[in-house]
Structures are given as structure tokens and as C-alpha cells.
Amino acid sequence: MSLRYALLALLTAQPMTGYDISKGFSGSVAHVWHAPDSQIYPELNRMERDGLLTSEQVPWGKRSTKKEYHVTEAGLTAFRAWMDEPLDIRRQRDPAYLKAAYLDWAQPEAAREQLRKQREYWRDHLALLEGTRAMLLDRSHPTLVARLSHLPEEQGELAARYRIHAYNGLIAHAKTELAWIDDGLALVDELDGQ
Amino acid sequence: MSLRYALLALLTAQPMTGYDISKGFSGSVAHVWHAPDSQIYPELNRMERDGLLTSEQVPWGKRSTKKEYHVTEAGLTAFRAWMDEPLDIRRQRDPAYLKAAYLDWAQPEAAREQLRKQREYWRDHLALLEGTRAMLLDRSHPTLVARLSHLPEEQGELAARYRIHAYNGLIAHAKTELAWIDDGLALVDELDGQ
DNA sequence: ACTGTCATGTAAAACGTTACATGATTCT
DNA sequence: AGAATCATGTAACGTTTTACATGACAGT
User: Which of A57, A166, B9, B18 has the fewest CB atoms inside 10 Å of its own CB, making it the most exposed?
Assistant: First the structure.
């Protein structure tokens, strides 16, 4: 059910089409809540059916149109209610830790290969996160800019500070993962050398 | 599909019943891969059907029996194959980060309350993880003991070292979360004071 | 004319959560 | 006798992934 609120969060910055969302997603909410197109479009339809969004047909090219979604009052209310609701904490379920715990069952070379892949993924991801945080810090991040344009100074400042805080957490997490993966690689080398 | 491998991992230590697993789970694999009973029993049945496990009826009390699952050769092969397979990295999808990013939409007191709850959860969780790591370090952890009893010295050492490594990662992760949550609480106080 | 990107989905399968259901055994 | 724990699931529902499907528009 969080996808719904991720979409609501994004649409409070500005009206968007499903396509805008599924692209713009990459640069912002996707870091926090990834979803493929095939989940986004149907969910937008359900949200409209439930009265959280309205859609407006906007001309696209000469003959065609696209559907731009706007958050309704009911949508805002639902979002605020969700934000005030206690968070349901989900248990850890990460195959990386599961595998790491049983690395004695893998071929050392396969183990190294996997750890290197993970390291690469987290490095790239970290770079993305740091890039996004930089844009938030200098207030050049597109979604934030859209939001600031229709918010009073002080409200905008709040929004920016909390977005940055979230990225601080994501970045700290990525760095912790990277350090742990490096430890894993060193451990494989140590234990394989015997 | 990882639940299957989590169960396989656990059953390589010793034969167990579904109940043993769903309890013993708490003290070991569950930290890495949580699952409720209602998912464990059917999966064990499917794994038996697929030839990864065999089950033995063991007497329980005077009239009753229970089903003890043993890993087959095919099960070991499947587990090793999975361990050598490249890991499919899953994208972040944590409602805590999503909420943190939009904390300007929550009532400050609701925000504080949620952060306190999260802090409590992670503190408890961290204590559990550190307790488990301590048992791994002094080789008193029950599942590890069972495993060491049928493994040559050197193999057992490998197993212990990798289990500990996994817990190091989980503990580092929990500490990072806690530090970030504290930052969040400080931030709410700062921004609410205006 | 062709390629890339904009635009919007459906369908099926896999995975996971929550609630319900039941009975035997062991301990006090 | 009653409570706690051992033991094993089913059913319904919701979420997520993966694969497939289609067509219009814009730039070269």
C-alpha cells in the first residue's frame, strides 16, 4: 500500500502523467520506493477511482492526448493521515545477508565475483544518491524546485531539510553496505588462502 | 524463492520439523530472512515434492508423530548452485525512508512518536543481534553447535567466521539506522521550534 | 522511412501477509 | 482440570515481478 503514498508524495510537487512519474521516479522517490511502469499505471487508475486523484486530458502532439494526474483534497487528506499513522516496521529480508552468512558453501571465486558485483552496484547507487543530495542542497533538484515554487519560503525550507535528511540516511546506509562488502572480500581472501 | 534457500541453509545444520524451524528461526536465519509459519509449512511440502528434502515420521508422545525434514543430495546440490549463482540485487523499498523524506507533512508530535517507535525497534533488534553474535563468537549458538558436531574442524571454522561476518553487517546496519533516527528526532525538534 | 522516446496499459505468476482452524501433548 | 506449548496447516487477500502488447509522436 506504500506505493500509493509514494505516488501521492510525488504528485504533491506538481501534476504529472504516468510516464512523467515512471521517469521522474528515477531521480527522486525511486531511491526510496522503486516500482515498474506496470505497477504505476494501474495504481494511478485505482487512485483516481478512489478519489485521491483527478485526471485531465492534456493535448499531446496534434491528435493525441495524455493523462495528467492531480492530487485532490481527499488525496492530500489521505496522505497526511498516512504520515501521522504509526509506521509498520518490516522485518529484514535481504538475500545479500542470507548469502553472506553461508559463504562457506560457495566456490571462493564465485563468492568474490558476487561481492564485487554488489560493491559495484552500491558504488553506483551511492554516486547517484550523492548527486541527488547535492541537487537538494543547492535547491536545484527539479521536483524540489517545482515544490518550492508554490510553497511559502518557510514551508519550502522544511521540505528541503527533510528530503536531505532522508538522503543522508540512504547515503549512510550505502556506505555501511560498502564497508561490509569490503570486509567480506577480505574475509574470503583470508579464508581461501588456507 | 529465497525462503526455500533459507530453509535449506538451516536444515543443513541438522534435521528439523516445521515447528523447530519456525521457532529456531527466531534465533538465527530469521534475522536474515523472516517468514511466518503459514509460509514455512507449505514451502517444506513443496520442497519435499521437488526432491530437495525427505521427511521422516518421528514419534511424538505416545500416539502422535511429527515430520522431521532431512536435506537430500539434490537439496545440497541446489543450495550450492544457488550460492554460486550471481545475486540479484533488489532495490530499496523501505517505508521508513519514504516517510522520513516527507516528514513536513506529519504533525510534529506524530513524527516524534514514530521515530521513537523506530528507535525502540532498532534498539531491541540490535540487542538481539549482538546477543546472537556473542553466541557465535564463543561457539555456543545452538544451530552452529549442531553444525560443528558433524563438520571437520577447519570447515566448522569457516562456517563460524561467515556467520559472524553476516551478523557484523546486520549490526552495522542497525547502528547506522539508529544514528539516522536520532538525527531525525533532532531535526524534528529543530524545525518544530521555529 | 526509420529510430528513439513518449505514452499506456494487460495478464499471469510468484511472493508475502493476515486471519482462521484444529488437535495432541506436557506441565502445573 | 486447565494452560501453555507443540504441531500442522488452509484460505483469502494483497503486493510485486515479469513478460507481453500496442501505438503515436519527434527528430534525422
Answer: A57
